[in-house]
Design goal:
Layout: E1 7-9, E2 22-24, E3 30-38, E4 43-50, H1 58-68, H2 76-83
Antiparallel strand pairs: 1-2, 3-4
């Protein structure tokens, strides 16, 4: 079951005409379905879907990093280690 996260279509408020924009709530986690390069337009097309709270596996990664840090805290430095 996917826990819904609030989102809003903010296309009407965009500074960039001709673009569709959606604002997602902080904490939304997406699963990458595919990544394709479109050479005609020099862009990457990334298809994603909202992950359920149990589906993404991030909890295991955070617990592993927490165990490896001396103080067991999770903060911006911990996030940096995960992203590195």
């Amino acid at each position: 079951m996917v826990t819904t996260k609030p989102f809003a279509d903010i296309t009407a408020n965009s500074e960039f005409s001709g673009e569709s924009e959606v604002l997602f709530m902080i904490g939304s986690i997406f699963c990458v379905k595919s990544i394709i390069r479109n050479n005609d337009y020099n862009v990457w097309i990334i298809k994603i879907s909202l992950c359920s709270d149990n589906q993404h596996g991030l909890q295991e990664v955070l617990m592993n990093v927490k165990q490896k840090t001396a103080n067991g805290e999770t903060n911006l430095q911990t996030l940096g280690k995960i992203l590195w």
